[in-house]
């Protein structure tokens, strides 16, 4: 097993877990309403307004509820202040913008996570079109047994070679899905068993999903088994592995442990 990510030195309270869940849920409900309000306006408008309004809502709420904390948002302007903060919120206001712009697709999400000492210590992934929020406030049940055959998630349009290699090694069947948040949520909810990605993402794509998956007992790491570290100067994260703990050794054998 890989070495664990650095543990937090700053206390994290139940209120932080609850805040992450509340913010993700609130932004998601707004996005569902906005989708209905802008019905027929076209994908470009849905993408632009969804990103903008969710970002503005979340920034205002974090400023009110967690003043003094750092923030890294996909839709914000990054700065050095978050690197010196004891606590930093990493947010994706709308994960799966394309999926959101294609009603009635449900595979899009809102990510809100709190990072301390490089580790996601609280987080939530809202799946607003499904009426679901997964969070560290109320972790999902511990993983049940792996089915036969196991299920490996791939993107609908561009299945990554690493995922196909894992599926071949496990004799798994492929499950197609959209956003990163929806993919990790599918693993957590028992709808899939492995999500291996090597095409590169940003920290906001995986931080909240990793917080939720770890709280539920799933393995989360880089694809070589090394720890995931967040709130770095460069938010680019080359790869990611989230999988059922019973499959960890088999998957890492394929992905480069």
Structure characteristics:
disordered N terminus, 257 residues, globular, D-Maltodextrin-Binding Protein, domain 2, 2 domains, alpha+beta, Fructose-1,6-Bisphosphatase, Chain A, domain 1, five-stranded mixed sheet
Percent strand: 15-25%
How many domains, as an integer? Answer: 2
Question: Using DSSP, what is the number of strands?
Answer: 12
Total count of helical runs of at least 4 residues: 7
Task: Give the SSE string.
Answer: HHEEHEEEEHEHEEHEEEH
Pfam family, one: Inositol_P
Binding site for Mg(2+): 74, 92, 94-95, 205
Protein name: 3'(2'),5-bisphosphonucleoside 3'(2')-phosphohydrolase
GO molecular function: 3'(2'),5'-bisphosphate nucleotidase activity; metal ion binding
List the helices and strands and how they pair.
Blueprint: H1 14-37, H2 43-65, E1 70-73, E2 88-95, H3 97-100, E3 109-116, E4 119-127, E5 132-135, E6 151-155, H4 161-170, E7 173-177, H5 180-188, E8 194-197, E9 201-202, H6 203-215, E10 219-221, E11 236-237, E12 240-243, H7 248-255
Parallel strand pairs: 1-2, 6-7
Antiparallel strand pairs: 2-3, 3-4, 4-5, 8-12, 9-11, 10-12
